[in-house]
Design a protein that fits this description.
The chain is mainly α. It has 16 helices and no strands. The protein has one domain (4-446): Amino acid/polyamine transporter I. α6 (86-116) runs antiparallel to α14. Mean pLDDT is 77; it is low at 1-5 and 446-452. The chain crosses the membrane at residues 46-64, 100-119, 125-147, 154-177, 197-219, 240-260, 286-311, 331-354, 360-381, 401-424, 430-448.
Amino acid sequence: MGNSNKKLQRTMTSRHITMMALGGAIGAGLFKGSSAAIDMAGPAVLIAYLLGGIILLFVMQGLAEMSVRNSEARTFSDLVQSILGKYPAYFLDWIYWKMWVLNIAAESVVAAIFIQYWLPQYPIWILALTVAIFVTAINLFSVKIFAETEFWLALIKISVIIVFIIAGLVLLLVTFGNHTAVGFSNLTDHGGFLPNGPTGLIAAMLVVIYSYGGTEIIGITLAETKNPEKAVPKAVRSTLVRIITFYLLPFFIIVSLIPWNEVNGVPESPFVMVFKMIGIPGADHIMNAVVILAIVSSMNSGLYGSSRVLYTQAMDGRIPKIFGYLSKRKVPVYAILMCTLAMFTGVIISLFAGEKTFEFLMGSLGYTVLFIWLIIAIAHVKSRKKQSEKTSAYAVKWFPYTTWIAIIALSAILIGIIFTTSIIVTGITLAIYIFITLMYLISGRFYVREAK
């Protein structure tokens, strides 16, 4: 990779990467995707998110173990290549890059829409441009400044979710003034706990996978994390507990307080609906601000992740070396700017695509997260054979059973969502994967990794 002054700096701690994973995963999927998931599965959405959380736990444990065993790895594609070979690593890199670029493109438009709630005199494209420039500027500063910014953005977002959980539980359990405790009848009324049957539950799993996607960004931070063999397992453990908590409890409160069939088809988020029930003055403005922070936080993590993929590709000789250039602050400037440019292209497309943009992108991104998790899990199963001679400070306790459960579950979900997802979404996603594969056949086979 060249001499030391050309390397990324290890300035991030487990505190930073934990919050980065939370920032990437608790975003539009929670605040905007919640309505779609509840509409598909009804109160059984709780089962969907619990299953998704367990699968995520098993996948991330495998990622943590591989990270500890290979301390020289810079991203999870480095981990995968040493185990599965060139093509899976190449495919993983580019679908991950595609995931984040599409995600930040969609979220910049969504953020602009929410900001326009306060500034209706400004057109969407100006507000989207402003948000994009702000997120780009944060990433162009030092990694430490980026990590601190992401830490505080995620902390604010999480704090509000905690307030939401406490207030929601009070509404459910306590009678006060003119309010009567709601109780839990909404969980079984209006068609039962599973009103749309197993099909609805399977369809919701795509939204669930999309929502949890972003947690694996921990695997992108390896080259910039202090003592990754200690920090990554610690971050995985704490992140998973928090993500499952911050998804399951809010959804439990939403489907308990509001009939599931009244959640979708209304302009505001279910979170705004609950805040209005609490009776907080200006609840819509409070939640509007929280959603904007959530989206900016997710975009921040997304631009970081996508730019590091380009940086790694450049250092490995797959794309022009300019994308491997580091500034004095040790950040890959041109890689970040390229991802920003791709984001602006996506923003333009999103503006013309209309109201279905988020739905289509969410479906395609759900597929991508699912394949990323599958590749990581398969690599983990084979990693013990490849590295059996190495001792490790961290090992998955019930290997290989937990990882095989994850692989089987993800394969079953993949089959299910193929039959329950729009053919347009599936077709576009398949076309992107075929294009990536063709690019590998054209250029990837000629790739020879540079000596480190």
